[in-house]
Amino acid sequence: MEDRLNVKDTLYSFHANSGCYSEETNMYTLIEQMLHHIGSTDAELRDNLIYSTFGNFIMGEALTIQQIEYVMHTCLREDFLFFRIGENEGDGVFTRSFSSLVIALILEKDRATYYLPRQLANRAILQSIQYLYKEQDVRGYVDQKGWAHSIAHGADLLEASIRHPLFELELAESCLESIEACLFKGKVYIDDEDERLLIAMEALIDRGLDEKVLTDWISTISIRLQQLEKQEGHTISFFRQKTNVMNFLKSLYFRLMSEQVSSLPMNKTREIVDLWHTKIYG
Q: Which tens digit of pLDDT belongs to each residue from 150-189?
């Protein structure tokens, strides 16, 4: 408790000084403290102070390359990005979700500076795909604890990975599998998670995603939904996942229109939305 309050006081002082820190600040100690509390259930400390401070430090070049590498290595650890992965609910989601945001910040910064070791950047890219696929706690806002938002934050990380110069298009299908998995996690998204997933999709399209691969993937989503309907019938779980799929595809249709891609994936998207509307509502 006392340690948490000390970190809050230090970060309050930092923000009160317009993001400037004194020469007496021991950056390694401060970094360790922020990492230790990165998954705090105190929303003010976790979101408003620690995450925003990491943003100021990373984007404002307040950290040395060695310090940034240390933060990246730490956030990629099993006890950070994958801490208690597989839980449907639990406070571990805050550690995972906010570790993903810090990794995304570093990858975004590295797009311009390109100072991360190649092996470390590649590891972050691969683990970003794995994280979004494996995350099971899909809560958005948690009462009294603030934003968990793991799917949205994981999508932000995936986008940062896709836009990084070291991302290879051969990973595109794995990215699509992770996005698809998010549509079938059993709960309806109500906090713009589908929009954040679409931003990652746009990044794939910008990187040159083959339109036939995209079209086939859109068909695969509908086939998976058909299989779910056959297995479960018209259960609450089925309808919730159908809602996610339909909301995503409807938004995807208009994004594809604005991206000015060929009619192939657009027509397939419209065909599937019409098919399910007729199937359910006649």
A: 999 999 999 999 999 999 999 999 999 999 999 999 999 9
CB-hemisphere CA count at 13 Å for 25? Answer: 18
> In this structure, how many other beta carbons lie within 10 angstroms of the beta carbon of residue 91?
16
- 85 sits in the region (left: phi over 0; alpha: psi -120 to 50; else beta) called beta
Q: Quick one: 35 and 67 in the same domain?
A: yes
- How much is the pTM? 0.94
- Distance of alpha carbon 233 from alpha carbon 237, whole angstroms: 9
User: Is the pLDDT reported for residue 24 higher than 60?
Assistant: no
Domain boundary, last residue among 184, 209, 234: 209
The last residue of one of the domains, among 209, 225, 250, is 209
